[in-house]
Amino acid sequence: MKIKHYFPLPFILTFMPVSAENYISTRFSADPSVHFFNNKFYVYATNDQDNSGTYWDSTDWRLFSSADLKTWQDDGSFLDISVFAWAGKTAKAWAPGAIERNGKFYFFAPVGGKQIGVAVSDKPFTGFKDPLGKALIETPRDPNAGVEPIDPMAFIDKDGQTYLYFGTRIPKVVKLKQNMQQLDGDIQDIIIQGFPEDDKKKKYGEAPYLHEHNGTYYFTFSTGWPGQIVYATGNNPLGPFTYRGVIFDYLPISTNHQAIIEKDGKSYFFYHDGSSQGGGDHKRVIGFTELHYAKDGSILPITIK
Ligand code: FUB
After folding, report:
1. Which residue owns the Cα nearest ligand 1 atom 5?
2. Is residue 31 in contact with ligand 1, taking CB distance under 6 Å?
3. Structural domain boundaries of the chain?
4. Which member of 8, 97, 179, 253 has the greatest number of CB atoms within 10 A?
5. Tens of pLDDT along 220-276?
6. Cα-flanking dihedrals φ and ψ of residue 263, to 5°?
7. How deeply is 74 buried, as exposed, middle or buried, from its count of CB atoms within 10 A (0-12, 13-18, 19+)?
8. pTM of structure
9. 49-85 pLDDT, tens digit each
10. Residue among 222, 231, 237, 227 at smallest CA distance from 267
């Protein structure tokens, strides 16, 4: 795999080109949730290959893995919507979020646009079961779940507290109990301050993602449809966050969805686009590249060449 970067001056204001060679698979898949579990990178994804081509209506999730970020293995459709008996058999399976806690692997799954389920397994690649028999989050059942509780993303802070992020148009966060299967308190709206007043397109759309770097919490998300991937920072996983800038510009498709992982002192930015042959709004492919910070902690923008 070859990734080409350069840092023109002033590099902070300029986008870094990324070669088109860094896709993890030619198979259509989207909405990466990336993790390092048991000495391997895993990318949990929406299965675009098997959708109708006119909507995101696939009913299972796809998994890819790599030991070295160079060679990727397609681990198949590892989880089907039927694991969630309470979900309709044709409920759409959208952007998932996985996480490991105490040797168990949790998979947060948005189904049908109104519910988020949780499945658990002893292995990151198979055996996921629904421990609850009902949705973990559901609208309108749960106060402040929002109209479309999708795109779950779980983050465990240094003190062991888990936070679950999700939501469309209004970003949401809720603490989870240690068992990862119960909400611990109210669902809260995330406050993002400092959007540029002269740019009404800078707002929260979907794809919430939290990571921590050098003691700062970075909240990244897509601004909408189409959307840019932008970021805001704060000193608490619950926010508030202050808008900082664009990481990844609009794509010629309607969605944009990112994940960021740090490993061995390097940071990686995973995304999807519709650039491969036959690709488009509903047929996306996942790529990644290194992500770099400036000395002041700002994220250097990235672009696809
Ligand atoms: O894949 C279906 C939806 O498209 C996801 O839930 C959104 O994040 C967008 O990428």
Report:
1. 95
2. yes
3. 9-304
4. 97
5. 999 999 999 999 999 999 999 999 999 999 999 999 999 999 999 999 999 999 989
6. -150, 130
7. middle
8. 0.93
9. 999 999 999 999 999 999 999 999 999 999 999 999 9
10. 231
